[in-house]
Amino acid sequence: MLLSEQEQFLSYNGEVLIFQLSKTRHVEETADETVNLRVRRMAFNRDTKLFVEKSSGVFSMRASHLKIEIVCCSCVMDSRTGIILPCILVKKKKQNNAVKYLLLLLHNSNQFEQSFHFKLDYELKEDIRFFTGPSVLWRHANKLFYICSNTCTVLSAPIQLSSVVWTGEIEDEGTVILGIRTACLPENEDEDEFSTSDRAIWGSEFFGYAIETQKMLTGTCFMPHAYSRVVSFVYVCKNKILKKRLQISLVAITQKNQLIWFQDGLPKGVCELPYEKPCSVKPAVTNSNDLLLIVSFASGDICVVQRRDSLQVASKWQKVKSVLVDDFIGSGSEQLLLLFEDESNADPLSTFKITDLGDINYAAGCTSIRELQQHLGLKRRVILESCRALIDLVEERNHILPTAKEEGLVSLWDDVENPPHSLNKETSLASKVPEHFTEKLWQRVVGDSLVVGVKLTESFCLSLSDVSLSLVMDQDSSSISPIIKCRNKIIKLNKAFSALAISSCQIEPPPKKMKLDLHNKNDLKKEFPKRCSRVQLDGAKTVIAVTSLSPLLAFHHVCCIVLLHAKKQKHQNDSLQESKKITVLCGKFLLSLEDISNGKYSVKMIRDSSYCTGSMEDILAVLAVSVRFSFQIVSSDCTLTPVNSWLLGEMECTPFKECHDNIFCHKAGNVYGTVFNWTLKNPCEGVLTLFCRNLTVLFQCLHSLTRVLPPNCDVKLLRSGSKSILTEQLALALEREMLTLRSSFFSKESKVENNLTWGNEPGKKISDASAASLLDSEEGVQQFRKKFQNEREESVLSDVH
Fold first, then answer.
1. Mean pLDDT for all residues in the chain
2. Contacts of 56 (CB under 8 A, 6+ apart)
3. What Gene Ontology cellular component terms go with this record (predicted)?
4. In Å, what is the CA distance from 700 to each residue of 687, 688, 697, 706?
């Protein structure tokens, strides 16, 4: 290998360190040569989207009759100062095959310090690792050797091993190596009595060895022995001592091209890797606190495995020269830096990618890939809209501009064309709306929040989606905006079944931001007939708007207009037709400081015997201003009876008379007004849902709860909604989309011919049966949707020519 090709990359404090060897000759007549080890500190410039050289340094070595190479580099702790520094191991090989190694430390001033050197009669090739000191360990002839900076002497560990798979720090044990060695059969067993499978399992074992104490650690606390024959690399993610017992989480890559997650010695998840011969794994913690596992392969390929509900390959790349993990852009979280092979450019940082698999995405000095995709998508939509406008102009039709939502933007008026003062035109949009579509308009004041609710009739609810409220001030003032910023919630509180269904969305945000397509729940009885078959209720759904109260009190008296926005769906022959956006006037209400001071809109939660007698509007108001948290509580060896006793006793809770499963906290202090819902799945497992005003109240409740829970309880924060409900919602949404695509496509094409012709080109006919078969799987639906969309866009473009 040429010296110029010996490049090593290392990330340190958000910078990229490039180490490179170069040779110079002092005088032509002499054989004296000097090899320079140069380091370049490269920092990412967010303005130019490029890496620029920040500083550099050089370490010179006499190289007469020597072959000098960089063996490896890493970041280790200097035991003298406790500071983590870059560390480089350099090899000097003489012509008589004697080998000398130098361990160098790089300081922030770019000065190299020779920590120690040592000589061997062989070359280091197997399992070379760094650890605190700095220290170096390696494996040779199935033995473990190491050298520390404080002794500068090569030492041998009293163990035999076939490989080293991890080196690092473990609590109470110091520096530990994890390795694989030949296992000894149990003393009371005869080797001849073992079957072939038993011999395979007992042929090797996983073990740990603490270097400072020379203590052996039981391998089964890391993983079962059966995995030792296939594991090639390990990364310990977390370790701690709890009740004098080592608890450890680790990931291992295997020769079977798998990544396996182990927790306390037991496998908890497995992921099939996309390439062969994985050789290392390293972690990255992104801005969203997601743990990414970066797996490198011998071929130069890279894949990232994400651990959420299960282990899944999130992304992969090929022809990667090096992958580094650090905070390169200064965001406070880690990103991946992928350096790609580029033979056409001598600059090692000419082709790169910075990503956290989320919002952060830079590539080879360009703007983010996501921004480019959004820009290209916008240009395509502009071209398509221009074509439609031209067609309408030629055919003498009025062209209707797309709504803000179709363009991915949020308008201030939710696409209401008329100003709020001309409500006579607004109400004309509701000509086909039933006369009595609302049962009640009500207001409540909870803390510094004004809660406005509109109770809709059941028949009206069934035909609506994307329902929201707008609050508009009926004030003659040009100096302020009449629009009241608020957030919307849709709550359906079942009296008998006591199931809470809450859908939340933000309305009236700042304009020109990407708008999320949120799913608003329709009637629960319609969407989940099995789950709600025994619910006996009035069937009404309440739409709620919550806004800050204090800005409105500045007017002393204010009149607010309540507008309801929704999509009204049309059903015909059991198929969902195109929906129409409507805006209807729900009514007005007067708000005055005097009424608020007199408690006219206050929430009244009265403790009457064993029940809380708050009205349904009071309950909804409290839930609307609260933040919902759900926790799964599992006890391995005790029942969860103390939770119910804690709610009714220490927290002084009583159930609502309107819905018994939800209980109101009457305890004095910050926790007053918290709503709980405790559901037992079995005596040892349950879900506790809390509706709190803020996080402080949540922490107080959890702190009180932990004092009564059994010692071995596991408490886990759940996402909003149960897994079964979220899964069912997704399935129903996909089913509706599939039926819509099927009906809208076949209703037009089947009338013309029995076969589908894509793009009017010969040889591209698809029968009805084959097209229908596409819709039998998720991949088929995606393929069908893409073809259908391309056909529509191409037909529009072809009509212009």
1. 76
2. 38, 39, 40, 41, 110
3. Fanconi anaemia nuclear complex
4. 18, 15, 5, 10
Bin 28: left if φ > 0, else alpha if -120 < ψ < 50, else beta: alpha
Give dist(CA 692, CA 669) in Å, integer.
Answer: 13
Task: State the Cα–Cα distance between residues 132 and 149, nearest whole angstrom.
Answer: 9
Tokens of 383: 């071209």
| Closest listed residue to residue 566, CA positions, set 429, 422, 408 | 429
Using a cut of 0.85, tell me whether the model's pTM lies above it.
Answer: no
Query: Each residue of 69-105: pLDDT tens digit?
Result: 999 999 999 999 889 999 999 999 887 778 999 999 9
Q: How far is CA 183 from the centre of its chain?
A: 41
CA 142/CA 146 separation, integer angstroms: 13
pLDDT in tens, 179-205: 998 876 555 545 554 444 444 556 788
Tell me how far apart the alpha carbons of residues 631 and 615 are, in angstroms, rounded to a whole number: 27
Which amino acid, one-letter code, is at 140?
H
pLDDT digits (tens, 9 = 90+) for 448-504: 889 999 888 776 666 677 788 888 877 554 445 567 777 777 766 554 333 344 444
Phi first, then psi: what are they for 300, rounded to 5°? 95, 5
Given a cut of 70, whether residue 610 has pLDDT beyond it is yes
CA distance 765 to 602: 67
C-alpha to C-alpha distances, 36 to 23, 61, 112, 345, nearest whole angstrom: 6, 6, 12, 23
Q: Looking at 205-209, 481-485, 585-589, 766-770, which range is the least confident one?
A: 766-770
Cα distances (Å, whole numbers) of residue 684 to 139, 634, 642: 49, 6, 11
Top pLDDT among 497 and 294 is at 294
- The per-residue pLDDT for 53 is 93
At which residue do the structure tokens 């011998």 appear?
298
Between strands 627-635 and 713-718, the pairing is antiparallel
Sequence letter at residue 137: L
H-helix or E-strand spanning residue 168: strand 163-170
Q: One-letter amino acid identity for 452?
A: V
Residue by residue, DSSP assigns 345-368 as -S-TTSSEEEE-SSS-EEETTBSP
User: Which residue would you say has higher pLDDT here, 604 or 505?
Assistant: 604
pLDDT at 67 over 50: yes
Nearest C-alpha neighbor of 304 from the set 353, 255, 236: 353
Residue the block writes with tokens 């949404």: 733
- What's 329-348 look like in SS3? CCCCCCEEEEEECCCCCCCC
Least confident of 317-326, 487-496, 498-507, 578-587: 498-507
Per-residue HEC secondary structure of 578-625 comes to CCEEEEEEEEEEEEEHHHHHCCCCECCCCEECCEECCCHHHHHHHHHH
Cα angle value 45/50/53 (rounded, 5°): 75
DSSP string, 412-460: TTTT--S-TT-HHHHHHTTTTS-S--EEEEEEEEETTEEEEEEEEPHHH
| Order of strands, sheet of 112-120, starting from the edge strand that comes earlier in the sequence | 66-78, 83-94, 99-106, 112-120
